[in-house]
C-alpha cells in the first residue's frame, strides 16, 4: 500500500460488514428458536367438548383441555351450601385479582360466587396456582374425614398435596395458602343443555 | 477488534487461567499461512460451516422426529408421519428439514472438492500423510452418518437403501449373517433398525467433531500445503491466517451460502438428487421401487459394487475402493507434490476426477448393458490410477519446481 490507510473508512467498512453479519446471524436464530414454540397441530387441538351429564352427583372428573387438566364437578345441594359462610377466609372472594381468575360469563353475582354458568357443574382449571400440581378433592366440610391436612374449620374443597394450598368448593384460594390466586376460570359455554365446549 | 478484546481486563483474567492469548496467537493471529493459497483452499472452512449447520438443524429436528416404525393409518408409520408433521405443522420445520437435507449434499460437495484439492496439489504427501488419513476417516464417518440419516424418514428409498446396504455385509463369509443381524436387530430392516440408526445418526456427528478437531490440530502442526507444493522457508512467503484468510474464508462462506440458499428455498429436492422422489412414498416391506439408487454422493461406490458379477468380489471391491485412500500417501513416492509440475500425474488425476463423475452417473442411472460396460471401465481406471502411481515416478519427467513463492 503506497498511500497511508484511510483509518476511518476502514473502521466504517469493518463495522458495517460486521454489523450486517451480526444481524444475519441473529435472523438465523429466528427459525431455530421459533421451531420450539407449539406446532400448528398442537395449537389446533385447543377446543374440548364434554357432556357434563356423565358426571354423577358429588363426583369429580378430570379431563384434558390443551393438554392441561380440568376439574369438572357435579355439586349436590349440600356441596353448594358450602360456598357460603367463610368469605373472611378467602384471599379473593370475587375472583378479581388477575384476569385469569374471571371470565366474561361471570356476569351475575351468583355466577361469580359459584364460579360456574350452571351452579351445580363447576368447570375449572385443575392446576394449582402455586407451582402447578393437581389439588386433591376433599369436598365435605370439617376435619373429620381429612385429618390434619386441612384446618379445623375446613369449609370443603381442594387441598394441594405438594405444598398444602387450600381452595374452597368454588376453587377460591384460602388465606395462608402458598398459592397466590384462585384456580383459573376457563372460557366455556353450553352447546346444548348438558354439552359444554371449553376453549 | 480482536486486539481490543485481547487487551481487556476480562480477557486478561481468563488468559492467566487458560493461556488463551498464546492459543489465539499460535493458532490464529500469528499462525502463518502460505501467501499464495487459491480458492481451492476455501473448502475446508466451508466443510466446518456445513458440519455446524448439520448439527444445529439436526438437534432441532430431533425435538420433533420420532424413530418408530409403528403403524398409524394406511401404510404410514410414526416416523414417516413425524417427518410430515415437521414439514406441515412445526414452525419453520420445513426450513430446518430442507436445510438438513440440502446440507447433507452440500457437505459432500465441499468435502469432495476438498479431497480433490488435496489430490491435485499433493497435499497427502510427506509430512501430511496422517492429516490425509484422518481426513479419510472423516469421509467414512460422514458416509456412515449420511446412510443412517437416510433411513430416518422411513420412506421407500430409506427402507430399500438400508435393506441393500445391510445385505452387503451379509455377503461376507462366516460372519456376514451375524453382522447383518447385528446391524438390523432382526431378520429384516424394521423398527429396531430404525431406532439404532437414529441413535448412531446422533452419535456419528459427535465423533466427527472430535476427529475434525484432530484434523485441524494435525494441520496446524505440519501447516498448509500450497498450489506450488513446495516447502516454504522464508518468512515473506507467509501471511497471518487472521485477518487475511479469515476474510477470504468469510467471502467463500458468502458465495457458498448463495448456492446453499438457492437449493434450500427454491429447489430442495434438486431434481431428485438431494431428496429422491420415491422417498415420499411410505416404506413398504412388500414392494421394492422400480428403480433404486443411493443418493448421488454414494453412487460412485455403488457403481463399483455392481460392476462385478460376483457378490462377494463386488462388496470387497467397494470396500477396497475406499480403503485404498488410506494407502495413497505411501503409493505415490514422487518427491514433487503439486500436479503443476508433474505432467503425467496431472493428466492422470484430471482423468480420475472425470472417472469418479462417470462412476457417479452410472450408479445414479438405471443399469443398461452399455452403462454397465462404461461402469466397469471406469471401475478399472479407478483402481488403475492408484497402482499407476507406484510406477509413474520412475519415468515421469517432472518440471523444475520454483525456489520460493
In helices, the fraction of residues of chain B equals: 55-70%
Q: Poorly predicted ranges of chain A (pLDDT <50, ≥5 residues)?
A: none
The CATH superfamily label of the largest domain in chain B reads: Cytochrome Bc1 Complex, Chain C
The span between the termini of chain A is 70 Å
pLDDT averaged over residues of chain A: 91
Major sheet summary line of chain B = 2 strands, antiparallel
Strand content of chain B: under 5%
Order of helices and strands of chain A: HHEEEHHEEEEEE
* Annotation, overall tally of beta strands of chain A: 9
Instruction: Describe the global form of chain B.
Output: globular
What does the largest sheet of chain A look like? 3 strands, antiparallel
Q: What is the β-strand count of chain B?
A: 2
Instruction: Specify the CATH class of the largest domain in chain A.
Output: Mainly Beta
Radius of gyration of chain A: 26 Å
Radius of gyration of chain B: 23 Å
Q: Structural class per helix/strand content of chain B? A: mainly alpha
Element string of chain B (H = helix, E = strand): HHHEHHHHHHHEHHHHH
Computed structural class of chain A: alpha+beta
Which two chains have the most extensive interface, and how many residues on each? Answer: A-B, 14 and 15 residues
CATH architectural group of the largest domain in chain A: 3-layer Sandwich
Explain how this protein is built.
The complex is a heterodimer of chains A (199) and B (405). Chain A starts with 6 loop residues before the first helix and ends with a strand. Chain A folds into two domains: 37 residues; 156 residues, Rieske Iron-sulfur Protein, CATH 2.102.10.10. In chain A, the strands form three sheets. A three-stranded antiparallel beta sheet of chain A has the order 1-9-8, with no helix packed on it. In chain A, strands 2-3-4 form a three-stranded antiparallel beta sheet, with no helix packed on it. A three-stranded antiparallel beta sheet of chain A has the order 5-6-7, with no helix packed on it. In chain A, a hairpin with a 4-residue loop joins strand 8 and strand 9. Chain A is an alpha+beta fold. Chain A is 22% helix and 19% strand. Chain A has four helices and nine strands. Chain B folds into two domains: 256 residues, Cytochrome Bc1 Complex, Chain C, CATH 1.20.810.10; 113 residues, Helix Hairpins. Chain B is 66% helix and 1% strand. Chain B contains 15 helices and two strands. In chain B, helix 5 packs across helix 6 and helix 14 packs antiparallel against helix 15. The interface between A and B is medium-sized, with 14 and 15 residues.
Amino acid at each position: 500500500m503506497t498511500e497511508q490507510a484511510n483509518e476511518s473508512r476502514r473502521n466504517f467498512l469493518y463495522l458495517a460488514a460486521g454489523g450486517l453479519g451480526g444481524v444475519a446471524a441473529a435472523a438465523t436464530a429466528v427459525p431455530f428458536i421459533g421451531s420450539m414454540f407449539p406446532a400448528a397441530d398442537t395449537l389446533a387441538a385447543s377446543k374440548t367438548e364434554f357432556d357434563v351429564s356423565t358426571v354423577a352427583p358429588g363426583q369429580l372428573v378430570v379431563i384434558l383441555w390443551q393438554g392441561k387438566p380440568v376439574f369438572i364437578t357435579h355439586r349436590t345441594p349440600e356441596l353448594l351450601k358450602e360456598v357460603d359462610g367463610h368469605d373472611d377466609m378467602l384471599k379473593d372472594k370475587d375472583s378479581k385479582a388477575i384476569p385469569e381468575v374471571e371470565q366474561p360469563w361471570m356476569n351475575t353475582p351468583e355466577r361469580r360466587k359459584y364460579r360456574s354458568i350452571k351452579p351445580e357443574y363447576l368447570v375449572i382449571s385443575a392446576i394449582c396456582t402455586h407451582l402447578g400440581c393437581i389439588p386433591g378433592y376433599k369436598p365435605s366440610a370439617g376435619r373429620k374425614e381429612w385429618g390434619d391436612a386441612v384446618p379445623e374449620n375446613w369449609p370443603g374443597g381442594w387441598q394441594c398435596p405438594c405444598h398444602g394450598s387450600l381452595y374452597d368448593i368454588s376453587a377460591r384460594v384460602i388465606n395462608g395458602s402458598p398459592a397466590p390466586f384462585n384456580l383459573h376460570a376457563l372460557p366455556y359455554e353450553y352447546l346444548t343443555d348438558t354439552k359444554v365446549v371449553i376453549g | 477488534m480482536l486486539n481490543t478484546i485481547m487487551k481487556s481486563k476480562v480477557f486478561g483474567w481468563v488468559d492467566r487461567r487458560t493461556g488463551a492469548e498464546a492459543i489465539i496467537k499460535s493458532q490464529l493471529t500469528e499462525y502463518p499461512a502460505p501467501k499464495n493459497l487459491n480458492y481451492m483452499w476455501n473448502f475446508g472452512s466451508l466443510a466446518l460451516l456445513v458440519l455446524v449447520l448439520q448439527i444445529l438443524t439436526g438437534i432441532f429436528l430431533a425435538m420433533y422426529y420420532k424413530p418408530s416404525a409403528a403403524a398409524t393409518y394406511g401404510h404410514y408409520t410414526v416416523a414417516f408421519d413425524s417427518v410430515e408433521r415437521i414439514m406441515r405443522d412445526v414452525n419453520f420445520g420445513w426450513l430446518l428439514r430442507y436445510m438438513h437435507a440440502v446440507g447433507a449434499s452440500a457437505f459432500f460437495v465441499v468435502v469432495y472438492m476438498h479431497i480433490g484439492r488435496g489430490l491435485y496439489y499433493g497435499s497427502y504427501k510427506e509430512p501430511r500423510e496422517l492429516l490425509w488419513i484422518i481426513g479419510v476417516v472423516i469421509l467414512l464417518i460422514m458416509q456412515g452418518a449420511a446412510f443412517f440419516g437416510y433411513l430416518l424418514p422411513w420412506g421407500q428409498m430409506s427402507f430399500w437403501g438400508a435393506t441393500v446396504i445391510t445385505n452387503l455385509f451379509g455377503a461376507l463369509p462366516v460372519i456376514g449373517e451375524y453382522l447383518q443381524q447385528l446391524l438390523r436387530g432382526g431378520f429384516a430392516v424394521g423398527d429396531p433398525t430404525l431406532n439404532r440408526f437414529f441413535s448412531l445418526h446422533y452419535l456419528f456427528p459427535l465423533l466427527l467433531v472430535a476427529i475434525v478437531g484432530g484434523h485441524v490440530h494435525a494441520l496446524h502442526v505440519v501447516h498448509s500445503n500450497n498450489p506450488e507444493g513446495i516447502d516454504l522457508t522464508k518468512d515473506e512467503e507467509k501471511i497471518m491466517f487472521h485477518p487475511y484468510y479469515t476474510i477470504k474464508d468469510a467471502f467463500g462462506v458468502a458465495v457458498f451460502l448463495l448456492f446453499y440458499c438457492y437449493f434450500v428455498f427454491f429447489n430442495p429436492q434438486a431434481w431428485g438428487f438431494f431428496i429422491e422422489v420415491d422417498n415420499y412414498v411410505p416404506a413398504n416391506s412388500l414392494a421394492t421401487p422400480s428403480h433404486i439408487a443411493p443418493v448421488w454422493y454414494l453412487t460412485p461406490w455403488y457403481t463399483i459394487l455392481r460392476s462385478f458379477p460376483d457378490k462377494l468380489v463386488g462388496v470387497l471391491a467397494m470396500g477396497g475402493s475406499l480403503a485404498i485412500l488410506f494407502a495413497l500417501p505411501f503409493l505415490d513416492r514422487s518427491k514433487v507434490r503439486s500436479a503443476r509440475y508433474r505432467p503425467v500425474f496431472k493428466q492422470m488425476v484430471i482423468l480420475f476426477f472425470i472417472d469418479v463423475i462417470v462412476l457417479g452417473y452410472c450408479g445414479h442411472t438405471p443399469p443398461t448393458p452399455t452403462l454397465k460396460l462404461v461402469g466397469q471401465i471406469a471401475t478399472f481406471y479407478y483402481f488403475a490410477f492408484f497402482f499407476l502411481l507406484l510406477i509413474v515416478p520412475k519415468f515421469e519427467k517432472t518440471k523444475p519446481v520454483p525456489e520460493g513463492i
